[in-house]
Amino acid sequence: MATSWRLGAVSACAALLVVSCGSGDETSVPAAGDVVLVDLAEPGEVAAWTTVNDPVMGGTSTSKVMFGDGGLVFSGDISLENNGGFASARGPQDPDIGRRAAGATALRVHAQGDGKTYLLKVGIADQPWSYIQRFSTEAGIDRTYDLPVEDFEPVGMRLDPEPDAPKTLDPAGIDQLSVYILDKQQGPFTITVRAVDATTQS
């Protein structure tokens, strides 16, 4: 697995001291108990991702994914015209994600954002529902965003609440990861996602 971006982030933190690379026990290098679910520092992994935006519902938002700066660069422009307002980058379905995530207490997104709020969506194998959790980024700062499993919310295809789904996410069922931007955040956006890990740390 490529780790150069993580080691570089650690070096930058040590050299600058005044720049936060996260809070609490966040770290750029996977700690003991962490398992990599998606390593987007590999161009081949990024090539398998696609975008789905609001034009499928009549909107005019645009987005693209590409490999750059050691990760998946998801960028575009959100428009609220025609009741639009979302864009998404979606990874391929892979049941091995769930096998690696089994027993996790949190998912960790390693990313550099633009100050906007994004959403991690996890698809569940053979189910019509998914689970979501938002994370607010710091502009231009590489960070690790910890998303507790217990805080993921079940949703349907339109990201509306799904009462028929189990209330608590079972990480072992995950077969797809996606990143969304929505919430009427109009205008240009860019986020670079370098990896998503699962952790069993408390």
Question: Could you list some keywords that capture this structure?
Answer:
mainly beta, disordered N terminus, 202 residues, single chain, 12 strands
Class computed from helices, strands and strand pairing: mainly beta
Uncertain stretches of 5 or more adjacent residues: 1-29
Sum up the overall morphology in one term.
globular
Order of helices and strands: HEHEEEEHEEEEEEE
Total helical elements: 3
Mean pLDDT: 87
Radius of gyration from the alpha-carbon trace, in angstroms: 16 Å
Describe the largest sheet.
6 strands, antiparallel
Question: How would you describe the oligomerization state of the chains in this entry?
Answer: single chain
Distance between the termini: 25 Å
Q: Tell me the number of strands.
A: 12
Report the helical percentage: 10-25%
Strand content: 35-45%
In short:
The protein is mainly β and 202 residues long.
Q: Can you describe what's shown?
A:
The protein has helices at 4-16, 43-47, 96-101, and strands at residues 34-39, 50-53, 62-68, 71-78, 87-90, 106-112, 117-124, 130-136, 142-148, 153-155, 174-181, 187-199. The protein is mainly beta and 202 residues long. The strands form 2 sheets. Strands 1, 3, 4, 6, 9 and 12 form a 6-stranded antiparallel beta sheet that branches. Residues 1-29 have low confidence and may be disordered.
